[in-house]
Amino acid sequence: MDYLDLPRNRQMNKIKNIGVLTSGGDSPGMNAAIRAVVRGSIYYDIEVTGFLRGYEGLINNDFIPMDRKSVANIIQRGGTILKTARSEAFRTVEGRQKAYENLKANGIDALVVIGGDGTFTGANVFSKEFDFPIVGLPGTIDNDLVGTDFTIGYDSAINTVVDAVDRIRDTAESHDRLFIVEVMGRDSGLIALRSGIGVGAEAIMIPEANMNADDILHKLEHSRKDKSSKIIIVAEGDDTGGAFKVGEILQEKYPHYDTKVSVLGHIQRGGKPTCMDRVLASRLGVVAVEGLIQGESGVMVGQINREIVFTPFDHAIKHINAEKVSSKWLKLIDILSF
Amino acid sequence: MDYLDLPRNRQMNKIKNIGVLTSGGDSPGMNAAIRAVVRGSIYYDIEVTGFLRGYEGLINNDFIPMDRKSVANIIQRGGTILKTARSEAFRTVEGRQKAYENLKANGIDALVVIGGDGTFTGANVFSKEFDFPIVGLPGTIDNDLVGTDFTIGYDSAINTVVDAVDRIRDTAESHDRLFIVEVMGRDSGLIALRSGIGVGAEAIMIPEANMNADDILHKLEHSRKDKSSKIIIVAEGDDTGGAFKVGEILQEKYPHYDTKVSVLGHIQRGGKPTCMDRVLASRLGVVAVEGLIQGESGVMVGQINREIVFTPFDHAIKHINAEKVSSKWLKLIDILSF
Amino acid sequence: MDYLDLPRNRQMNKIKNIGVLTSGGDSPGMNAAIRAVVRGSIYYDIEVTGFLRGYEGLINNDFIPMDRKSVANIIQRGGTILKTARSEAFRTVEGRQKAYENLKANGIDALVVIGGDGTFTGANVFSKEFDFPIVGLPGTIDNDLVGTDFTIGYDSAINTVVDAVDRIRDTAESHDRLFIVEVMGRDSGLIALRSGIGVGAEAIMIPEANMNADDILHKLEHSRKDKSSKIIIVAEGDDTGGAFKVGEILQEKYPHYDTKVSVLGHIQRGGKPTCMDRVLASRLGVVAVEGLIQGESGVMVGQINREIVFTPFDHAIKHINAEKVSSKWLKLIDILSF
Amino acid sequence: MDYLDLPRNRQMNKIKNIGVLTSGGDSPGMNAAIRAVVRGSIYYDIEVTGFLRGYEGLINNDFIPMDRKSVANIIQRGGTILKTARSEAFRTVEGRQKAYENLKANGIDALVVIGGDGTFTGANVFSKEFDFPIVGLPGTIDNDLVGTDFTIGYDSAINTVVDAVDRIRDTAESHDRLFIVEVMGRDSGLIALRSGIGVGAEAIMIPEANMNADDILHKLEHSRKDKSSKIIIVAEGDDTGGAFKVGEILQEKYPHYDTKVSVLGHIQRGGKPTCMDRVLASRLGVVAVEGLIQGESGVMVGQINREIVFTPFDHAIKHINAEKVSSKWLKLIDILSF
């Protein structure tokens, strides 16, 4: 597929009005993506309609027409101006039928959906059910999609974690403390992995590896004694059961340690997107429109090795992070905290 | 007392070597305070010795001589380079006796202690017991000391809270959610109060006021329906029992709300100090030295209405925040969230 | 005057619709102030109208009705949603006449103007000319108004400077460089003064003091040699002629120094307001409305020693910073960089 | 070459002591790189020596032995703890001879040099001249090296630019202004390119493209009139002659615009490194050591498509950015500002 050099008069295509929505958990950069979809559509002389609260907006016919002005000065804002939600109704045939009828009634002939695996699962069913053109944009802090090196929001989230843990390091260092810090990632340890390296963590506990509390203990006992503060990063989806559980085990077995637990929580979803997330969202957003123009559907647009790649929805959501969490990254943490 | 215009040859005073330490919970700006004590002492031709881990350093004779270089480039750093701790031993007569002997042996003839109420309680006893000159600097994020409008670290902490809750607002707004956010302040609602105004909170729950979960419910039910996200700030010392308890109550009575809880935790102690905290620490740090030169002891140096004020330790720790938490501030929150 | 505890039924007052505008150079916290004026007015059952681009909006009848929603989620935003401008037309009788007619035609019976000395000069004339109730809010990064300890935006601006100079310190320290950094302040050295202390500057050059390049040279030559990086903060209004001029002089007389110049410029006007600026703007904004209700006019509302103070416009703009720039602050810089 | 899974007993190699230095312009992440080289060496049982101020340290025999503790808590710091400089002496045969003798005398048998093209040019000559093993790490904010997708510091620098221009956008938007913002990049427009997309710039002017002031004028005149603020990003190396020159031309031809110029300057070199820069520096730093163990020399270690790549110094410095600045990126800016 061609991209970013389509002729503007290529508009022999039948797409007149693209609907755009954000769905699932929000991530920094979603606004930059919306902006790119809107500006990209206008550039190719296509109208754009924003649906509110994800698939709920389709079902409830809750939408706003978008123009250049609607997306002015939002590239730097966290959250999503289109709001987002998880939709139970869209899982039912009736819900999707209603959504389809609203789309037809409003003259929308294609959709760009911005979200993660739940979003794409719904898009996949809907697209096939009604033969409706949909292209997806990977908007999630978790980076747990196949078909893109990075998802929109991941870079921002790990920088938020790094900023928060740098603060914790200040106080940990002052008090010679051990901190167990829980970061987001229900099925994926990718946030924990990169931010763990970024903050100089002693160890990380993630679903993809099987380090347990005993391993941590062993590591702490055999690590150099000259380090005053120690930080363990735990992914919320880790098998041990989260930071509080880990803290409890360590405290019990290791009572001479001054152990504290911190769960970073929802601060990880908000804040200004980083430059990388803005650039990624801007590029993929325009290409999503160009993909629809060229007949793509049922695919997510991503970036692999800096190249644009389209991946079918059912493959994108496969949660194969093996490649992304190779044992070499874990080894790197070992070497650096040695 | 004169300050910031003492003649440098005023050194008819008997102080030759000032010990400095940080004690209790750390706060941003402690390093700026240490720097000011060191540089101020050197300016007046006095030697300075840094004791590590608060009163533990006195007892264990754990110290480092400080020169200009020791405090270069630390004004912007969170935490404390002298480290901090709470000392059980210093509560015993034996502990304090040991500390006194070490001070004498090392030729230290005055102390500057940086910390909060616990720190000053210890200093008060020690100073009287051994007739030892001590001046205190208010270093705590809680702002709960009498004798200063602001403590060193408070401004930084509320800005950290504001930054974190701004992020939460992004996601709350995207999802139309109600967030209960817990901030530090075991005995004092001052962090909650100012940061609550700063983030545009719907309500705050603090030890000094008696708003309970029912009041919050009432407020939420009667507030305008057009606001999509709502944020309640809870001080950890609030009577209701913290953010999780509040969240539980609200969730139960108000099941149609999408309620989330976030406990900000130790990120509030770390990070770069704000300009105000650096300036406050710099000014008070130098004045603490000048106070000792002029014979002050058993007092905390603070700033009230921009003027330097010395307050006896036993008055400084009285936890009278009445003035600081006037009902007018609570009214302001009501008006702004009306 | 009472404030923050007026009865809501006090509405025997004749004010039905308050106009609000921002004028002159923008400052962080102006949006928080607008929000407080709007919410405060609504609380007291008064309508609010926002005029665009300062006095230009009055003259061109360019306005928008404001409700709670108009100011939702703006407390954290830099700039001003009402936009701002300097108005030549408002300096003419005709211009002001036009403005007055528009106000009458729209049923506006009082104004809150947010800005600095230029804004208040215009308000002062207009208020007297047409006997029109106006209360001013001090919105400027310069902190150069009499009648308030701090202006809205000053704290944010000095933190922006501190953040920028911390970055410069990183590279200055790595290269053993001398940096001359110019900060805003055409008539006032207050930004330079506080941020200079905050960044640990070697010296500051401000309009209120008469340190010249030779003094700086002398200071650098006699200061300790053990410090690798040196930073001089210059207010743009300093007599020597700005950072480039100072850099030139130092470079020539002191060729063995690796001297660099940095002019921070307009980044100082933008960015999120700090917590202090948000709280100040929130408080003063509500009180401005309450002042109008109680018959105040021709005054700026400020905060001195944490108390609300009303100051006549012509006194507020007198540029007497003597108090704010006492020699003790300059002495403090000397001691800390000794 | 293998990496991150070498056996630790592989120490049949002859390297006993690695020297490490930073040279040329500093960049955020250099400290993270130093830390990784030190920890990686220790892990493989190699001693490490830090030379101060780049090649000057080699020539002046100015060094410090490094242990784990020397690099504790520096991963988050901007600048370089080893300091940096440009060395004239190292360009002479005598200088390099001196350096070589010092290295031999101190038992250093390999070097890791962290820097940009100047650094690698020197390393290349030295390595060949004395058959001395050297591996380079790409530490520069410019991202202008062949052999790595990103250099250490680039991601941090573009985020600093984005943060600064976001602030400028606030004030530009409030005043309906046109800003010309100059960013670093003497030979390369890569900082301008990505940050330009990140801030939603109307246009960028870079050495690699030939957009001149007239093109900008044309663009501004034909762009939509509904946008109140406009931002042009200019790379310092652009042919037109920098932001002030561009501002002058635009102001003259386009007098009705309120045009302002801002040169971001050295703030771009400092500040905390982003997570991406920390991870990149950590990974490449360890691999540099492993490369030396396995006999690599005269090469820079980089990362292309997430894979480790070694590139000979003379190729790395070739300044071929064609690939990195494709016309598609410029088209993207056009579409987004359309």
What does this protein look like?
The structure is a homotetramer of 338-residue chains. Chain A is built from 11 helices and 11 strands. Chain A has a 7-stranded mixed beta sheet, with helices on both faces. Chain A has a 4-stranded parallel beta sheet with strand order 7-8-6-9, with helices on both faces. With 338 residues, chain A is of the alpha/beta class. The longest helix of chain A has 22 residues, at 154-175. Chains in contact: A-B, A-D, B-C, C-D. At the A-D interface, helix 1, helix 5, helix 6, helix 9 and helix 11 of A face helix 1, helix 5, helix 6, helix 9 and helix 11 of D.
Please describe the topology of this protein:
The structure is a homotetramer of 338-residue chains.
Chain A: E1 17-22, H1 30-43, E2 47-51, H2 55-59, E3 63-66, H3 93-105, E4 110-115, H4 117-129, E5 134-138, H5 154-175, E6 178-183, H6 190-198, E7 203-205, H7 213-222, E8 230-235, H8 242-253, E9 259-263, H9 275-293, E10 299-304, E11 307-312, H10 313-316, H11 327-336
Parallel strand pairs in A: 1-2, 1-4, 4-5, 5-10, 6-8, 6-9, 7-8
Antiparallel strand pairs in A: 2-3, 10-11
Reading the helices and strands of chain A in chain order gives EHEHEHEHEHEHEHEHEHEEHH
Q: How much helical structure, as a percent, in the residues of chain A?
A: 25-40%
Strand order of the largest sheet of chain A: 3-2-1-4-5-10-11
Number of domains of chain A: 2
The separation of the N and C termini of chain A measures 47 Å
InterPro entries (chains A, B, C, D): ATP_PFK, ATP_PFK_prok-type, PFKA_ATP_prok, Phosphofructokinase_CS, Phosphofructokinase_dom, PKF_sf
Keywords (chains A, B, C, D): Allosteric enzyme, ATP-binding, Cytoplasm, Glycolysis, Kinase, Magnesium, Metal-binding, Nucleotide-binding, Transferase
GO cellular component, one term (chains A, B, C, D): 6-phosphofructokinase complex
Organism (chains A, B, C, D): Pedobacter suwonensis
